[in-house]
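ugh finaly. both done.
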Amino acid sequence: MASISLHNLNKVYGDRFHAIHDLSFDIADGEFMVLVGPSGCGKSTALRMIAGLESITGGELRIGERIVNDVDPKDRDIAMVFQSYALYPHKTVRENIAFPLLMAKVDKAETERRVAEAARILQLEPHLDRKPGHLSGGQRQRVAMGRAIVRKPAAFLMDEPLSNLDAKLRVQMRAEIAALQRELKVTTVYVTHDQIEAMTMGDRVAVLKDGYLQQVDTPKNLYDRPANVFVGAFIGSPSMNLYEATLDGDSLTLGNQTLALSENLWKTRPSLRGSRNHPVIVGIRPEDMEDASLSGLTTTLDIPVTLVESLGAEVLVHLAVDAPFVDAGDPDAIVAEGSTNRAVGRFSPKSQVKTGDRARVAIDTEQLHFFDPKTRESLW
């Protein structure tokens, strides 16, 4: 196992496209680090630079104590798992898993021992003599994982390994990969565009946008204290509701309505005091909005309901908020025409609100997020 350190990494292509800008963070020995962000943010490029599949234009990359900027991929002691399983269709599962050991000229007895161990860990023992064409997508992904495991590398690098699986199998496989990584305690760098995948799997998560690192932190801290508007909106599903607002004294003016703010809010967020009587961007997470008739909260807004989606354990209520909507800058986000002032609340399934109602919505003001409208950075 080994730590991985990125210090001011840059990647500029021949057409002068600057894909990665001064990327810096450390990955501890045995840590599961997830790189997440929208399409084209640079996460796969960063992973390929760690692997040695992309050259480094500037900065320094260390694996363990060794600077590896100019070290060949085969000499970096890493194993990659790709989006495509890249299995040999004419070889059995046993032969696919053993292939990297064959190339490394590992003796037969040790090869058999390692293949058997990987098959046991990945529950592939009944399938060792089958060909990949006779396996399910999840089983093929396990074979690809097994091929990486047998090498006993210093680090695993995984590039969207679950993106070819259906939704149900993705949930199962992400739990299996996370459990496997905890068992093996191998340093792992995992790339995904799925923020739910990132939040449920990573010890820490690095959020990228346009080749810039936005924030690197634990999933909980990313959710509770996002560094800026982009991270606030990108982390969480449904996304954070973002609006232009104004702090007027001890209250928040949102459109034509006012929310009273508690004294405790000002105490816990000292940076917010400097924005009194100034415009701000306010973020409200869906779970901090509730049907007022079912909530003990006293701060409420009167909002028209445009759509109700009952999901059994919860109800997603779409609301037309009378305030200017703020675009978080996610290029993958789709905002339907005419819905730029919409909000989504996560209501109890006991709620009786219906499409077309004017609902009384309770807001947990202690959980509001505030951002500077110029810098778009969080105000704490």
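ok and the 2nd:
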Amino acid sequence: MRRDSRLSGVLHVLLHMAQQPGPFTSETLAKAMDTNPVVIRRIMAGLRDLGYVRSEKGHGGGWTLACDLSKLTLRDVYTALGSPPLLAMGSRTQAPDCLVEQAVNAALDQAFGDAEALLLSRFGEVTLAMLSDDLRKRLGSLKLHGMSAHA
């Protein structure tokens, strides 16, 4: 089953944007995410609608951060993406009148709900400033060892 990696990709892009001043074109961000600029524009529009990024059209324009990274959480970005399904597994629904299926689904649905609530709670605790701080530490460590980071 194919995994939805949009959250990871958008966080990647936002951290790149936080590290360098100035606007980023959709084409530049698309290269960082290995996707099409149209996909970037669609994703970034959701972030813009919530005030996390802004866009300027024309020569020298592009996307810039519009918020304080210490106030932007993983959950905020997840919500801006439309709250895609967190778990790939689900309950079987081929025989809804089957008592066995009902019992199994009740147990699974409760466990899946608990897992999603815990994950969303954790997403709400992690800010992009925390990710940016971690990135700076990692970059500092690489520089000490004479290595280079992935752009």
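summary for the 2nd one i guess: The CA atoms of residues 54 and 63 lie 6 Å apart.
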